[in-house]
Amino acid sequence: MGKKKKKQVSLRLNLVFFTVFVLFSMLILRLGIVQIVYGEDYKREIERTEDITVNSPVPRGKMYDRNMTTIVDNSASNAITYTKSQGTGTAEMIEVAEKLAALIHKDVKDVRERDKKDYWLFRNPELAEEKITEEEWDLFYEEELDNTDIYNLQLERITEKELNELTDKDMEIIAIFREFSGGYALTPQIVKKNVTAAEYAAVSENLEQLPGVDTTTDWDREYPLEPTLATVLGGITDSNEGLPRERLEYYLSRDYSRNDRVGKSYLEHQYEDVLHGQKAKVKNITDKAGNVLDTEIITEGERGKDLVLSIDMDLQIAVEKIIEEELSKAKQQPRTRLLDRAFVVLMDPFTGEVLTMAGKQIVKDEETGANTMRDFALGNITTSYTVGSAVKGATVLTGLNTGAISPGTTFHDTPIVIKGTKPKSSWRAGLGTLDYKNALKVSSNVFMYRTAINVGGGVYQYNQPLSISPKAFDTFRNSFAQYGLGVRTGIDLPNEMAGFKGIDRGPGLLLDFAIGQYDTYTTMQLAQYVSTIANGGNRIKPQIVREIREPVMNNEEIGPVLKTFEPVVLNKIDAEPSWISGVQEGFRRVMQVSGGTAYGSFGSAKYKPAGKTGTAQAFYDGPERSKFKEAPPVMNLSLVGYAPYNNPEVAMAVMVPWAYEGNSGHSANSAIGRRVLDTYFELKEKRLEKQTDKEDESTEEEASDE
């Protein structure tokens, strides 16, 4: 019985062993199949360790004027790119560069001497080794010199003769290699723009022999109306510049690539987030060596959104022409050697929309030596000057608000004489006894002097010392700031300046301040100031971008509105409505009543303008300043205005710095101002007539259909 039981156990145990043997044999067989048959496939799969997403740039958004005239566009062109893999070495890039150089012509103007030396060393390794002495090699083996030291010695010892042996084709290879090596891994780098049709076809046919090279469509900014507004529109970096170093981290954190083109100045920079668009995203699947195994398009991308500016380009171009003509005419007058610029801003006084921002500067052409006009629209916000009597409206309202004068206050216009100083008088004698409205009309300096003395708590006595509170400067500046004078206007452009404030606080200088001959202001500040008076007391933020619109696939169409910029009231001035009305009346008399300082220029205007002229004694501080031992005294001319006086629709500021030397000269400020306002209303009338004609034609067509 016991033996039978033993046999059964042995049989079962053998069966278990056999089963285990079979299972192990099957496992070993399976492992063998995996290792031998599918090993390479699984190895490649295992080595696919990275999914790297790369952003491809798209065209930027366009810019239009308020009438949908294209100001900034994109022009497409054929291009060749190179995308470097993470493991790509110098030898491979040079090999591809040689093949590509046989298919295209590459400009070599950017090739540096160092580029040529690097290439020579790569091509001549034996000769490069001979340039190191035995003693230097010994130091290298003893680790007293490293690879960098040896390489630098080799670079230094390449002769001019050896470099001159490089052929034209070598130079093209170097130029192409320079573009290859300047890119970032897995990021397309532009190798050549504006590729010819023949080059494009040749490269496209040989892409299999050119790893990393591709043909594509590139874009550049196009300015159909250049140079109009060139300085305000700004510029973008090119693919070689890439991201600005000072803002590198900012852009990288926002998913930009290092060689992306971005706005680097003014509107292009200010609205970069809007204009740059939604970039195409491509996922590169790479192995551990960085070689691209596959690519997958994640999103197609979308070009940037479009900007609609408040600028009226028809008006802008016409105003620029007026400035050029009047500047040229003024330059023919005597004592105008330092005159080289003029500015005009036109603004809607109720919305702050900038209709025109024009500036011109006379510069000498370096090649011909002849004077030429260049765009300097930016000078309206980046340069400031003493503006003279144009600010007297703010002086009067400061006096009324502080109680220094009342609406019924009058002063007799006789020279102010402070002991130990020269008499301070108006621009001409015999202006009589004046209230503030007529003081504005005839531009009485004396009225403003007496107002300033009262603001400062001083008591004026002929030929006696004058004592005023130093705080009077703060009182005036705080008041002027309510109108936009001496502070940034808030316009949607970067680098706006606030102007310069005088440092000394003497009583005589306070009097100068009151007539606009101490602190400096920009033309845009003058436009905001006169708009504040024109609209009844609201300081409106100037706005140069009116709308943001969605891009559309059809470039001939305008996309739907994404955002509209509404008027922004920065502050309401601290003044009674009757006081503002009184200043408006004074401004009306300046231009429409005989005896007003601008009546000769504007008295015949049918659009009923109001405004204030300005002439300021100043010292030249322009580009020719270094030629003089002392700054020459000059006259700055200004003009502010709006029209119609009883229902303002346009506000204007004109600035002509360093107009002439001496006490008298031309009046380019008034000449420019009159022609500019004439042009505005003429253009308006023409458009109304055109609209009426269209409506009549439409009505006739409907009638005929019936």
From TrEMBL:
The UniProt record lists the keyword Transmembrane: yes
Keyword Membrane: yes
Residues making up the signal peptide according to the UniProt record: none
Region Disordered: start-end pairs: 686-706
Residues covered by the Penicillin-binding protein dimerisation domain: 57-295
Acidic residues composition-biased segments: 694-706
SUPFAM superfamilies, sorted: beta-lactamase/transpeptidase-like, Penicillin binding protein dimerisation domain
Protein keywords: Cell membrane, Cell shape, Cell wall biogenesis/degradation, Membrane, Peptidoglycan synthesis, Transmembrane, Transmembrane helix
Gene3D superfamilies: DD-peptidase/beta-lactamase superfamily, Penicillin-binding protein 2a (Domain 2), Penicillin-binding protein, N-terminal non-catalytic domain, head sub-domain
Topology in the lipid bilayer: Single-pass membrane protein
EC numbers for this chain: 3.4.16.4
Top enzyme class: hydrolase
Reactions accelerated catalytically: Preferential cleavage: (Ac)2-L-Lys-D-Ala-|-D-Ala. Also transpeptidation of peptidyl-alanyl moieties that are N-acyl substituents of D-alanine
Chain segments annotated as transmembrane: 12-38
Family named by the database record: Belongs to the transpeptidase family.
Protein name (database record): serine-type D-Ala-D-Ala carboxypeptidase
Source organism per UniProt: Mesobacillus maritimus
